[in-house]
Each structure stands twice: as structure tokens, then as C-alpha cells.
Design brief:
8 helices, 39% strand, globular
């Protein structure tokens, strides 16, 4: 077997929604008699989970369904309007969480007898209790931090050994005020090591000194001896580059007492290091080998990047010694069709969309990020502000903070820790004390990164901002609070930790109070916020602001604003819940990317409104724009820095064309046309083959076009989906904030001309045939392939 085993533990699970019912033997003890299913009673857990005392037949199998993890049962429910009767339903997206149970029978190889074996849960929402073979192993409150269950002593080993794990999840209470899902929604791993092994989160790699031509790399590793006697242990560190070329090696031996731990430290120099940045995400690797005598007992790999981080009160954020403007977005873990149980490929898909817009930073709001997101950000190049859930210095609060720091501290992408978000205690004496404690704990674990707090008030009260290295301003740009504070506190480092909650609905250009839609012009701005344009302009003109995190990268379930029912999700996103761009996406792309950008809004399909003036806007990073309607010039205008251009244009079917110029020379053209009658369905997959691993995903964008291929931006056809072959449908969406259609349906109404189909590998190789059809339209059939890894 492997020296260190880490295997997925996500198949073969059974799920029960609601109170778990079992079949009880007759109370009199008469053999063979059973009653009807009854609610579980206190004290019955051991008997239910423990095969030695209660046979498997005692479970009402018909009440359990097969599931694979990660799993969010909440998104599988129906939307409903509780009219405020149940607290948080507005925030929870009008989906009920409740209580659920997971159960899995499994076997453990005889080879693992004598090893340390356990299960790692990356995230369970929420209040999870774990039993294995009748033993209560763990209770974990938080939905956002991982936890490890040591099962060594309670497992049955060998082919004849039958094990059962039961996980109770109570999602009735919420940690936040947004959609948080319900269930085992992050990965689960079976882990086995020798009794001498690197401790969980036990390796720390830092680059305390990076100078011209040389980087100092410091490695600390904690090794745990869980043998019943003392052992001698030798640890060897090896550093290699991206091509696995060995750069440095060192080792040392010393004894470890029984059930004790020891720390090994080593410092290396890397000559002419490649520096990590979002543009050049170069990763090195540390391999830690643990020996007892000549026998290898454990091996652990740790990726790291070489880079320097600093904040300056005048120049802002400095990456690798140079000013680097943060172009960030805030994001929840949520996506159309799948809720919060995101396959890794959807996490990567979302990050790819953000990077294509020019985004270089991701704020995990308002909780610690999933480990896979951090891995991907390391690899593709995306800075991360990882955020603690609550302002809480209790024993539980400190434990949750430590878990976040230990889990994330080796990730090159994390450039700052956020201690809290918009807590009521901001600017109070108590709050300042708690914040100071959280910051001190963070620095004690990780002295290499600054800490911040995402504050929406109290910046200058009771010394609250003194508790962090960088003061975060949530909506401080609304009244110029951040710029004013720079004058009052010139030594303060600051960042726009959250800005521009602009409420816009994709493809909608007129306010609709009945259906709950906001126009894409971004003219409806909450009183506590500002426009995306103002938020970015302030940053572009004031280097001391360091950067900005726009609220939000994507729409998300819950927190509908400014409407409530029938809305079930927010309008804040730069993209909708499917990842379809809104117009603001192109404004930011024009400001955040160097390549010439030109974008026109609105669409040009206004049948029955001929002659009525429409506001036509152009987003661009070019200096001069000339607009044409059906070949006739409507004038050339000069764009102000960081702004957009506007025309009043009477509607006339045909073509709107924009020409972009730089220094008087034509650069780029953009055209929007009036589409004809709906004719056919178009499907575009983000990838045309899936790895046959049962996990890979393809996001398929569906649209309707006329016979010439022009998109229909107002199409609302209901599309029926089918998939044959080596894949399955795991979700559908359309980005409509007022759609109550099920996320797991095989059909979906289009919204503003688009819908989304998400398919996942079923673990087999072969052809994948995807069909999208709608009455009166020409079907679309595309062929993908399931391939071996």
C-alpha cells in the first residue's frame, strides 16, 4: 500500500431527509416482531449504527436514497413564500434546510491494521455529528471549516469486517444571511498514515527573505509519534521546481516520545527564483520524508510560491516589491443547478470567468474558502483574501480561526487574512478587544501575511482599526469615507474590502417591479452603496486605496435586493448564477484588461417600440467612439477616464455599430443587431471531453438564434434536455432571479435568451450525446466524449 493514503470517500452513501425513522423490535422482546417505522428515540444511536447489536434490516431502507458526495440537499427542494414566518428564509433563498442523515457501509483493508486511519471532512453544513460503528466520534458546529475523525480504534479490518458511518446534519440554523445550502457539501477523504507521521496541517513553508537573485525558504514540520513507545525519527526535506528538478535537500534525526510531537526546522536558498504572481503563478514543491531507521514511514508534499507581500499607506499593495492594484470580487460558494456542492471543475470554471474579465483577486465572503479553490488559485494565479466567519474570541471562535489559518497558510494565493465582516461590534470597546485578540492569534501562526477586517462602520471609533494591519472599507466610497480617512490618518493602510452592490438583472433594461427586475444600466443603487464605475474610478485615481473587491462576482441565492418574493436570489453579481456576464462585466473588462475592449448595451430587439428613444451605452478602454444606426453616424464622442459613453437613440430595427479609435486610428468594431424569428437552439460547451473519473464537468451554454445565427436576447422558450452515454445531468439554470423552477429539472425556461445545462462524467469512457429541444425550434445535438484520465 501507499506510504500515505488519501482516497476519496464519496461514493456509496445513503441519504435520509428529515427525522430518521427506524424499525424497532417489539417492546416485549418477542423475536421476529416489528412495529411500523417510528421516530428515532434518544439512546438508540448505538444500536442503529452498530451492526453487532442491531441487524442491518432494522433500517427503513425505502426511506433512504443513494447519493454521491459532495451533496447539497437544500437545492433539491422547492421554492416557496413563507411571508416572513420562518426566520432567514429571505436570506436562504426560500429553500428549507432542515435535518438530514448520511449513512455509508464500507470495508477497511487488513493492511491498514496498525496504521492511523481516519476521515477528513472539508465542510459540512451544518452542526454535524459523526458516529462510526456505534461510537460517537465527533460533533462539529461550523459549516465552513474542515475536521478530522480518527477512526483507528473503532474500525473493523479485513474483508469480513463491516463498518458503518452515520452523519447527522442539522441545517435549521444559519451562520450567515445568504444561501448556505445543507449537507456534506465539500469533499470527504479516507486518510491512512503510519503511526509516525506529519501532523495534520503540520508543515509550514515561508519565504521570509526574497532579495535580488535569491530567496530564503524556511520549512517547519511537526511530526507526531502515535506509537506506544519512543521512536527515533529522521526527517528529510527536498525542494524541487515545477519540472521536478531537485534544488535542495537536508535532513536531521532525533527521538520522539510516545504520543509526543517534535518540530523540525530547515532553511534553504533558491537562486534566481521564479516569483509567484497572478500573471506568473509559478509553484515550487517541498517533499517531507519521515524515516524510522532506514524505513520510510511518511511522505508529504507541499506546494508553495516565492513572493513578497506588503502594504504602503501611500502606494497601496505591493506584490514582489512593486505596486499592484487589487482588481477583486467578493464571492459566495454557490452556482446554478448545484447549490453549494460545487464540483472542482465548476469552481475552476467560475475562476476562469473572473480571470477572463481581468479579475486578479478573490474574497471568500464571508467564510473560509474550500481547499480546492485555494489549490486552483495557486495554480492559475488568483490572489485570495480568506475570511474568518465571525468576530469571536471564545474558545470555539479561536479554534475556527486557527483551522482556517493552519489549513491555508502554505497557499501562495492567500495574501491577506480577514478577521470579520460587518460585525455589529465594529467601533466598540468590546469589538476592538476581540479584534486585537484574533489578529494576535493569526500573527502567532502566520507572521508573513497582514490581517484586515471588512468594516462598514466604526473605522475610527475605540481604536478599532488599530487592531489590524490594513483597514477594510465596505462601501466607504459611498460618502468618500476612505478618502477622508486617508487625510485624517495618513499612516493607515487601507483597501476597498467590499464595494459597489449594484442591483442589475441580466438582459433587462427597464425596471419591472412585478417580476422583480432591475435595469442593467446600474441606476438602481442601494443607499449604502455606489456604482461599479465610481468604485473603480476612486481606486484608479487614489493609489493608497490599494484596490477593490466588487460585490459580487456572481449572483447568489438568498439576499434578494431591492425586491423580496418572487425574487429568490440577489442581483448584485457581475455575472448571474450561471456565470452569464451582465453588462458590468464588460465595463470592468475594459478597465482591468489591456486588450482593446468595446461593448454596447442594450440589445436591439424592441418590437412595437419603434421611434421610442433608448439609452445606448458603450463600455470601452479606447479614447474615441463613433456610434452608427443602420449605417448613419450618430456622432463621435471622447470617453472620460474610467467612464462610459451615452447616446439617446430612437429605436429602429436593424443594426447598432460602434467604432473604437485610439489616437485617431480605428482599432475595433462592435455590432448589435435586431434578430429575426426564433429558429434554432445553439449549445456551446466549455469543454468537449470529460475525464472518465466520475467527477469531471462540462458547463453547456444554451441560446436561441434566428436562421442566420443571430442570438435572440429576449427568448423565453422552455428547453428540454437529455443526455445519453458516459455522463449525467446534475443541474440546470437560467440566471432568472425570480425563477422558481427546480434546479434539478430536465427542462428549463430560458431567461433573456440563455439557459445552462451542467453534465458530469458517470465514470465511463465513451460518447456523450447532449440534446436540447423546444417546440417549434430546430433541435441542437452536440457530441462530447468521455476519455480515460
Amino acid at each position: 500500500m501507499k506510504i500515505r493514503m488519501k482516497e476519496t470517500f464519496e461514493t456509496g452513501w445513503k441519504f435520509h431527509l428529515g427525522d430518521w425513522k427506524i424499525i424497532h423490535p417489539v417492546k416485549s422482546g418477542m423475536a421476529g416482531g416489528i412495529t411500523d417505522c417510528e421516530d428515532i428515540e434518544d439512546g438508540e444511536w448505538l444500536k442503529i449504527a452498530y451492526f453487532d447489536e442491531r441487524p442491518q434490516e432494522s433500517v427503513c431502507e425505502e426511506e433512504w436514497m443513494d447519493v454521491s458526495l459532495p451533496h447539497d440537499w437544500c437545492v433539491e427542494g422547492d421554492y416557496y413564500n413563507d411571508e416572513g414566518a420562518v426566520k432567514h428564509h429571505k436570506s436562504h433563498g426560500y429553500l428549507y434546510g432542515g435535518i438530514g442523515y448520511y449513512r455509508k457501509e464500507f470495508s477497511i483493508s487488513q493492511e491498514l491494521l496498525g496504521k492511523k486511519t481516519g476521515i477528513e471532512f472539508d465542510g459540512v453544513f451544518r452542526k454535524s455529528t459523526v458516529w462510526v460503528n456505534g461510537h460517537r466520534i465527533m460533533h462539529h458546529e461550523s459549516g465552513y471549516t474542515g475536521f478530522y475523525c480518527d477512526l483507528t480504534d473503532v474500525l473493523r479490518y479485513g474483508e469480513t469486517g463491516r463498518n458503518v458511518i452515520v452523519v447527522r446534519v442539522d441545517a435549521r440554523e444559519y451562520e450567515g444571511w445568504w444561501y448556505e445550502g445543507a449537507g456534506i457539501y465539500r469533499h470527504v477523504w479516507l486518510i491512512a498514515t503510519d503511526r509516525i507521521h506529519v501532523k495534520r496541517h503540520g508543515t509550514c513553508v515561508t519565504t521570509p527573505k526574497v532579495e535580488a537573485g535569491c530567496a530564503q525558504v524556511q520549512i517547519e514540520t511537526v511530526v507526531l509519534n502515535e506509537h506506544f513507545e519512543d521512536r527515533n525519527c529522521r526527517v528529510i526535506f527536498r525542494i524541487s521546481d515545477r519540472e521536478n528538478q531537485l534544488l535542495a535537500e537536508a535532513g536531521r534525526e532525533k527521538p520522539i516520545g510516545a504520543f509526543k510531537e517534535e518540530k523540525w526546522k530547515c532553511t534553504f536558498d533558491i537562486l534566481q527564483p521564479e516569483l509567484w504572481s497572478p500573471e506568473t503563478p509559478y509553484l515550487y514543491k517541498v517533499v517531507t520524508e519521515v524515516y524510522e531507521g532506514e524505513e520510510l514511514r511518511d511522505i508529504k508534499e507541499t506546494n508553495f510560491g516565492v513572493r513578497t507581500l506588503a502594504f504602503d499607506s501611500d502606494r497601496g499593495f505591493l506584490l514582489n516589491g512593486r505596486p499592484y492594484v487589487i482588481k477583486g470580487t467578493c464571492n459566495h460558494q454557490d452556482f446554478a443547478g448545484v447549490g453549494v456542492a460545487l464540483p472542482d471543475k465548476i469552481i475552476e470554471y467560475k475562476l476562469k470567468l473572473l480571470k477572463e474579465m481581468g479579475c486578479n483577486a478573490y474574497r471568500s465572503a464571508h467564510h473560509p474558502a474550500t481547499p480546492e479553490l485555494l489549490d486552483i488559485c495557486d495554480r492559475i494565479g488568483m490572489l485570495v483574501m480568506d475570511e474568518n466567519r465571525k468576530l469571536d474570541s471564545s474558545e470555539t471562535g479561536i479554534r475556527e480561526l486557527r483551522e482556517m489559518i493552519y489549513r491555508g497558510r502554505n497557499h501562495a494565493c492567500i495574501f491577506m487574512w480577514s478577521m470579520e465582516n460587518e460585525e455589529i461590534l465594529e467601533g466598540t470597546i468590546m469589538g476592538a478587544r476581540i479584534l486585537k485578540t484574533l489578529s494576535a492569534v493569526t500573527h502567532s501562526i502566520d507572521p508573513t501575511r497582514p490581517v484586515t477586517a471588512a468594516m462598514n462602520h466604526g473605522w475610527n471609533d475605540c481604536g478599532y482599526s488599530d487592531g489590524v494591519d490594513v483597514t477594510g472599507y465596505n462601501y466607504g466610497q459611498r460618502e468618500g469615507q476612505d478618502i477622508h480617512d486617508h487625510i485624517l490618518f495618513p499612516e493607515r493602510c487601507m483597501i476597498g474590502s467590499e464595494s459597489a452592490s449594484c442591483t442589475v438583472t441580466r438582459g433587462i433594461y427597464e425596471r419591472d417591479d412585478k417580476r422583480g427586475y432591475c435595469p442593467e444600466y446600474g441606476t438602481y443603487i442601494p443607499e449604502w452603496s455606489c456604482s461599479v464605475e465610481k468604485a473603480w474610478t476612486d481606486v484608479a485615481e487614489h493609489s493608497f486605496l490599494s484596490g477593490v473587491f466588487i460585490w459580487t462576482g456572481f449572483d447568489y441565492r438568498g439576499e434578494p435586493t431591492p425586491y423580496e418574493w418572487p425574487n429568490i436570489n440577489s442581483h448584485f453579481g457581475i455575472m448571474d448564477t450561471c456565470g452569464f456576464p451582465k453588462d458590468n462585466y464588460y465595463y470592468l473588462k475594459s478597465q482591468w484588461c489591456e486588450e482593446p475592449t468595446l461593448h454596447i448595451l442594450p440589445h436591439w430587439n424592441w418590437s412595437g417600440e419603434e421611434g421610442i428613444e433608448k439609452d445606448v451605452w458603450v463600455y470601452s478602454n479606447l479614447l474615441q467612439i463613433e456610434l452608427f444606426l443602420n449605417g448613419k453616424s450618430l456622432g463621435k464622442k471622447v470617453r472620460r477616464p474610467h467612464g462610459h459613453l451615452e447616446w439617446k437613440v430612437p429605436y429602429e430595427a436593424g443594426e447598432i455599430r460602434a467604432e473604437g479609435y485610439s489616437n485617431g486610428e480605428w482599432v475595433i468594431t462592435e455590432t448589435v443587431v435586431t434578430a429575426g424569428m426564433p429558429y434554432q437552439i445553439k449549445a456551446e460547451a466549455d469543454k468537449m471531453y470529460l475525464s472518465a473519473d466520475g467527477n469531471d464537468v462540462s458547463c453547456i451554454r444554451i441560446s436561441v438564434t434566428d436562421k442566420y445565427g443571430n442570438p435572440m436576447p429576449v427568448a423565453d422558450n422552455k428547453i428540454t434536455f437529455s443526455v445519453k452515454g458516459a455522463a449525467k445531468i446534475i443541474g440546470t439554470g437560467n440566471g432568472d432571479p425570480s425563477s422558481h423552477e427546480p434546479d434539478k429539472a430536465m427542462e428549463k425556461s430560458m431567461f433573456s435568451g440563455k439557459s445552462m445545462l451542467i453534465i458530469q462524467s458517470n465514470g465511463e469512457e465513451g460518447e456523450i450525446l447532449v440534446t436540447a429541444s423546444s417546440k417549434g425550434l430546430k433541435d441542437c445535438i452536440i457530441t462530447l466524449a468521455g476519455k480515460a484520465i
